[in-house]
Write a structure and sequence with these properties.
Number of strands: 14
Largest sheet: 5 strands, parallel
Structural class: alpha/beta
Distance between the termini: 57 Å
Helix content: 40-55%
Bound molecules: D-mannonic acid
CATH architecture of the largest domain: 3-Layer(aba) Sandwich
CATH superfamily of the largest domain: NAD(P)-binding Rossmann-like Domain
Strand content: 5-15%
Shape: globular
Length: 490
């Protein structure tokens, strides 16, 4: 099968839509750190729509770790397909907005130089929760993180995203040039302020003048990003070939829904993303809270509990009645009561829409994928909600089941006795604390002492420790499915 590329585009089968502009007119004004499937199916498509309406915002992707994505995209001139899929059918488009890719470890200075060039106006990031080198419970920089420590010692060949940003901003300061905007698109609470704080901590360790210049000149808009984009499967490429007549080595597949809520705080120009449906608001926090707690919170709950019960995907889990009933109760009784709805938004309706999105039969989002890096995700997805419930004196039994599901998952054996391939940067520490004790109460006390995840006060809250020990015991004796089924009868 012919490979997708500039020279094969004339062979494109009728049907799929292709970019309508002259790619050579695009300028690499936006550099994206951490180019994976999510940004290519989200921010890049909003930008694509702007370019189709006359913009010239080329995207230069950067990979901070591996060359795989560049190796797949370079032979196809960075063209790729994005396919929207649902029960109604599939809709594929050829995206032209990606103009190149750098692989940072191959030549770290090349990325610093590119970021330092005045043409780079916005740097967006999707480096996942663990890419920020921070302590998830406090949001402060983790000075002992190996990449952060190396970059603090020398910025000659940065390794971390923070190192690249600070090295490039320093060059801009030295050249008396204008700064770029730093726009994080990761699922972190108050993501703009969080990243700004981390850059400040990092830059301050590097020099007070630089930290001051950044504080005075660089903007870090907050954002809430939403679109369900599962990792690519072997079948995706085959379906794309059938639709386009061309082989794409790096297709993305996504649900129809998309949302991007941003603070309009940029250091310079930006694409007119609002014309593509992005919402610019003065306060992103209520949107981000609702999304992180309602979507990502139940995603993680379904990932752990669903995986334990043998469900491969989110849609498999929500098609199983005890799981659907569980997240509906979780929304109603323990998540929504902690939220202040964004103006004009009905959170109960939002919950119903989320359930319908999870039920999309064409989106095979693996529970294993979502389960990854729980130690970095739980604080903003479930633990903030938990603290709010405890403070208000309300129940936490359901949240406790989700958290206990994570603990059982981390222990590494599912309900059928099969080993789990657990991926988490804190795995050794978590396993060590769980393995040190036999009884559930002691296990719980020991894992709650992992302050990077739980902070320092939760372990002293007896209402919570009791609920967690009970949920953990129920999951261990009944298995996740029966534990949730019996819960819905109470
Ligand atoms: C998911 C998210 O992988 C995960 O942890 O919860 O990627 C989720 O699909 C997106 O945030 C949806 O916007």
């Amino acid at each position: 099968m012919t490979r997708l590329s500039t020279s094969s585009l004339h062979q494109l089968a009728p049907g799929p839509r292709r970019f309508n502009y002259d790619r050579s007119a695009l300028r690499p004004r936006l550099v994206h750190l951490g180019l994976g499937a999510f940004f290519r199916a989200h921010g890049a498509l909003y930008t694509e729509d702007c370019n189709e309406a006359g913009g010239n915002w080329g995207i230069l992707g950067a990979s901070l770790k591996r060359p795989d994505q560049r190796n797949r995209l370079a032979p196809q001139d960075y063209l790729y397909t994005a396919t929207q899929t649902s029960a109604e059918g599939r809709n594929t488009r050829i995206v032209g907005g990606l103009v190149g890719m750098l692989v940072a470890p191959e030549d770290p200075q090349a990325l610093v130089q590119r970021l330092a060039q005045p043409e780079t106006e916005i740097v967006t990031l999707t480096i996942t929760e663990k890419g920020y080198g921070h302590d998830p419970a406090t949001g402060r920089l983790n000075f002992s993180h190996p990449d952060i420590a190396a970059d603090l010692a020398s910025l000659q060949a940065p390794r971390s995203a923070l190192g690249f940003l600070v090295a490039a901003l320093e060059r801009r300061m030295q050249a008396r040039a204008k700064p770029f905007t730093v726009a994080t698109c990761d699922n972190l609470p108050r993501n703009g302020a969080l990243l700004s704080g981390l850059v400040q901590e990092f830059a301050a360790a590097h020099g007070a003048a630089l930290a001051r210049w950044i504080a005075e000149n660089v903007r870090f808009p907050a954002s809430m990003v939403d679109r369900i984009v599962p990792a690519e499967t072997a079948q995706d490429a085959t379906l794309v070939e059938a639709a386009t007549g061309l082989h794409d080595a790096s297709p993305v597949t996504h649900e129809p829904f998309r949302q991007w809520v941003m603070e309009d705080a940029f250091s310079g120009p930006r694409p007119r993303w609002e014309e593509a449906g992005a919402q610019f608001v003065s306060d992103v926090a209520p949107f981000e809270h609702a999304k992180l707690r309602m979507l990502n919170g139940t995603h993680s709950a379904l990932a752990y509990l669903g995986y334990l019960a043998g469900h491969e995907t989110i849609v498999d889990a929500v098609n199983d009645p005890p799981f659907a009933a569980f997240i509906q109760r979780l929304w109603r009784d323990e998540i929504i009561p902690t939220l202040k709805p964004p103006t004009g938004m009905d959170l109960h309706l939002y919950a119903a829409q989320l359930l319908a999105r999870y039920q999309n039969p064409a989106i095979r989002h693996r529970t294993w994928q979502i389960a990854m890096d729980g130690s970095q995700k739980l604080p903003q997805r479930l633990l903030g909600t938990l603290r709010d419930q405890l403070q208000a004196g309300r129940g936490t039994a359901l949240l406790a089941h989700a958290i206990a599901g994570w603990l059982r998952y981390v222990e590494g054996t599912d309900d059928l006795g099969r080993a789990i391939d657990v991926r988490d940067p804190l795995l050794p520490l978590l396993r060590q604390s769980l393995a040190a004790h036999e009884g559930s109460k002691e296990k719980i006390a020991s894992v709650l002492a992992v302050e990077q995840v739980f902070g320092s006060s939760l372990r002293h809250n007896t209402a919570f420790t009791g609920a967690l020990a009970q949920a953990y015991g129920r999951l261990a004796s009944l298995g996740a499915r029966r534990a949730l089924a019996s819960l819905s009868q109470t």
